[in-house]
From TrEMBL:
Domain SnoaL-like: 12-110
Protein name as annotated: SnoaL-like domain-containing protein
Matching Gene3D superfamilies: 3.10.450.50
Pfam family, one: SnoaL_2
InterPro entries according to UniProt: NTF2-like_dom_sf (IPR032710), SnoaL-like (IPR037401)
Organism: Dictyobacter aurantiacus
SUPFAM superfamilies: NTF2-like
Superkingdom of the source species: Bacteria
Protein backbone atom coordinates (compact mmCIF):
# COMPACT_ATOMS: atom_id res chain seq x y z
CA UNK A 1 0.00 0.00 0.00
CA UNK A 2 1.06 3.57 -0.52
CA UNK A 3 0.35 6.77 1.39
CA UNK A 4 -2.69 7.70 -0.70
CA UNK A 5 -4.16 4.22 -0.04
CA UNK A 6 -3.64 4.65 3.72
CA UNK A 7 -5.26 8.07 3.61
CA UNK A 8 -8.21 6.79 1.55
CA UNK A 9 -8.79 3.85 3.89
CA UNK A 10 -8.73 6.06 7.00
CA UNK A 11 -11.03 8.63 5.37
CA UNK A 12 -13.43 5.84 4.40
CA UNK A 13 -13.44 4.57 8.01
CA UNK A 14 -14.04 8.06 9.44
CA UNK A 15 -16.72 8.90 6.87
CA UNK A 16 -18.44 5.61 7.74
CA UNK A 17 -18.73 6.74 11.37
CA UNK A 18 -19.96 10.17 10.31
CA UNK A 19 -22.63 8.56 8.11
CA UNK A 20 -23.53 5.87 10.64
CA UNK A 21 -22.72 3.30 7.94
CA UNK A 22 -21.86 -0.02 9.62
CA UNK A 23 -20.90 -1.76 6.35
CA UNK A 24 -18.60 1.07 5.31
CA UNK A 25 -16.79 1.00 8.66
CA UNK A 26 -16.41 -2.79 8.68
CA UNK A 27 -15.32 -2.79 5.02
CA UNK A 28 -12.11 -0.98 5.99
CA UNK A 29 -11.14 -3.49 8.70
CA UNK A 30 -9.20 -6.74 8.55
CA UNK A 31 -11.30 -9.60 10.03
CA UNK A 32 -8.66 -10.01 12.78
CA UNK A 33 -8.48 -6.27 13.58
CA UNK A 34 -8.03 -4.70 16.98
CA UNK A 35 -9.61 -1.30 17.66
CA UNK A 36 -8.85 0.42 20.97
CA UNK A 37 -10.83 3.47 21.96
CA UNK A 38 -9.19 6.42 23.70
CA UNK A 39 -10.83 5.65 27.04
CA UNK A 40 -9.81 1.99 27.15
CA UNK A 41 -12.16 -0.57 25.58
CA UNK A 42 -10.63 -2.91 23.00
CA UNK A 43 -12.64 -4.61 20.27
CA UNK A 44 -11.09 -7.68 18.65
CA UNK A 45 -12.29 -8.85 15.26
CA UNK A 46 -14.96 -7.48 12.95
CA UNK A 47 -17.75 -9.43 14.69
CA UNK A 48 -17.06 -7.61 17.97
CA UNK A 49 -16.52 -4.27 16.19
CA UNK A 50 -19.89 -4.79 14.48
CA UNK A 51 -21.59 -5.34 17.85
CA UNK A 52 -19.91 -2.18 19.18
CA UNK A 53 -21.12 -0.17 16.16
CA UNK A 54 -24.67 -1.47 16.62
CA UNK A 55 -24.56 -0.56 20.31
CA UNK A 56 -22.98 2.86 19.72
CA UNK A 57 -25.57 3.92 17.16
CA UNK A 58 -28.53 3.49 19.52
CA UNK A 59 -31.42 5.84 18.70
CA UNK A 60 -30.28 9.46 18.79
CA UNK A 61 -26.54 8.78 18.86
CA UNK A 62 -24.67 10.43 15.98
CA UNK A 63 -21.20 11.60 15.03
CA UNK A 64 -21.66 15.32 14.48
CA UNK A 65 -18.11 15.96 13.33
CA UNK A 66 -14.87 14.05 12.90
CA UNK A 67 -12.27 16.14 11.11
CA UNK A 68 -8.77 14.86 10.39
CA UNK A 69 -6.34 17.75 10.96
CA UNK A 70 -3.02 16.07 10.10
CA UNK A 71 -1.85 12.81 8.56
CA UNK A 72 1.56 11.07 8.67
CA UNK A 73 2.44 7.70 7.16
CA UNK A 74 5.16 5.07 7.29
CA UNK A 75 5.65 1.79 5.43
CA UNK A 76 2.67 -0.07 6.93
CA UNK A 77 1.21 2.43 9.39
CA UNK A 78 -0.06 5.96 9.73
CA UNK A 79 -0.77 8.45 12.50
CA UNK A 80 -3.42 11.12 12.27
CA UNK A 81 -4.75 13.88 14.50
CA UNK A 82 -8.41 14.80 14.62
CA UNK A 83 -11.23 16.75 16.22
CA UNK A 84 -14.28 14.70 17.20
CA UNK A 85 -17.78 15.72 18.23
CA UNK A 86 -20.81 13.52 18.84
CA UNK A 87 -24.23 13.40 20.38
CA UNK A 88 -24.42 10.37 22.65
CA UNK A 89 -27.22 9.54 25.07
CA UNK A 90 -28.65 13.01 24.50
CA UNK A 91 -25.44 14.89 25.32
CA UNK A 92 -23.26 16.66 22.76
CA UNK A 93 -19.53 16.63 23.50
CA UNK A 94 -16.21 16.58 21.74
CA UNK A 95 -12.46 16.45 22.09
CA UNK A 96 -9.21 16.44 20.16
CA UNK A 97 -7.23 13.27 19.66
CA UNK A 98 -4.86 11.20 17.57
CA UNK A 99 -4.80 7.67 16.24
CA UNK A 100 -2.23 5.12 15.16
CA UNK A 101 -3.30 2.69 12.44
CA UNK A 102 -1.47 -0.36 11.07
CA UNK A 103 -2.38 -2.03 7.79
CA UNK A 104 -2.32 -5.54 6.37
CA UNK A 105 -3.63 -6.66 2.96
CA UNK A 106 -5.10 -3.21 2.28
CA UNK A 107 -7.19 -3.23 5.46
CA UNK A 108 -6.84 -1.66 8.90
CA UNK A 109 -5.55 -4.37 11.23
CA UNK A 110 -4.88 -2.17 14.29
CA UNK A 111 -6.32 1.19 15.27
CA UNK A 112 -5.61 2.86 18.61
CA UNK A 113 -7.05 6.22 19.61
CA UNK A 114 -5.68 8.75 22.10
CA UNK A 115 -7.63 11.72 23.47
CA UNK A 116 -6.66 15.05 24.96
CA UNK A 117 -8.11 15.22 28.44
CA UNK A 118 -7.88 19.00 28.89
CA UNK A 119 -8.32 21.97 26.57
CA UNK A 120 -5.30 22.95 24.51
CA UNK A 121 -3.55 26.17 25.54
CA UNK A 122 -0.41 28.14 24.80
CA UNK A 123 2.22 27.81 27.52
CA UNK A 124 3.79 31.15 28.34
CA UNK A 125 6.68 30.01 30.53
Amino acid sequence: MNASSFNHLILTYVEGWKAGDRDQILGTLDPACVVIESYGPAYRGTDMVGRWIDSWFAPGNIVNRWDITSFFEGDDFCCFEWTFECTYDGHRSGFEGASIACFNNEKIVYLREYAMTAPRYEWDG
